[in-house]
Amino acid sequence: MKKLCRYALFFALVSVAAFAEGAPRLHAFGGYQYFRDGFADGDKLNGVEAAFSVDLARHVEITSDFATASENLFHETARITTYTFGPSISLHSNPRVAPFAHVLVGDADAELYPFSPFSDSENYFVMKTGGGVDVKVDRLLSVRGFQLDWNYFHRTRESHGDDLSAAAGLVFNF
């Protein structure tokens, strides 16, 4: 699944020249991510998130999103890494504020590292649905005030559907 995500990002970036209606824009996001495993009493993980979007039409983008978050527990470290891609819809009714929504699918790696040479790692199918708001600072820079996603993880005979992630950071518009 990681290869599929990498190929999707590669083809999204290469296809920029294929649009005759004008040069599509590339948006690169980088920032802080807070991941909550479960609504009420789950683990709280902190990390980073990066996303790359290419305009397909006025309000439609294709997005590749990469995120990792970890938590140091008493004798071990928990880490979750997601690689997702999919469509995003953005509304540009106000020239300075751009709300967006997306549905992203891909792969997730959940890892537990004890203080020993052994580690436990699991792969999941992941679906992220959510959105957020970007506030334009100037032509090349925006601030992502917030991004909130519901995360659904699935593997054979096991599903988790109560995980939330929030992100904030900077968006560079090329």
CATH class membership: Mainly Beta
- The tally of domains stands at 1
The proportion of residues in beta strands is over 45%
Mean pLDDT figure? 85
Number of DSSP-assigned strands: 8
The H-and-E topology, N to C, reads as HEEEEEEEE
Q: Write down the overall geometry.
A: elongated
Secondary-structure-based class equals: mainly beta
Kindly identify the CATH topology.
Answer: Porin
CA radius of gyration is: 17 Å
Give the strand order, joined by hyphens, for the main sheet.
1-2-3-4-5-6-7-8
| Proportion of helical residues | under 10%
Main β-sheet, in a few words? Answer: 8 strands, antiparallel, barrel
Number of helices: 1
Uncertain runs: 16-20
Distance N terminus to C terminus? Answer: 28 Å
CATH architecture: Beta Barrel
Structure description:
The chain is mainly beta and 174 residues long. It has a single domain, classed as Porin (Beta Barrel), CATH 2.40.160.20. Helix content is 7%, strand content 68%. The protein has one helix and eight strands. It has one helix at residues 2-14; strands at residues 26-37, 44-55, 60-72, 76-90, 97-114, 120-136, 141-155, 158-173. The chain has an eight-stranded antiparallel beta barrel. A hairpin with a 4-residue loop joins strand 2 (44-55) and strand 3 (60-72). The longest helix is centred in the first third of the chain and has 13 residues, at 2-14. The protein is elongated, with a radius of gyration of 17 Å. It starts with a helix and ends with a strand. Mean pLDDT is 85; it is low at 16-20.
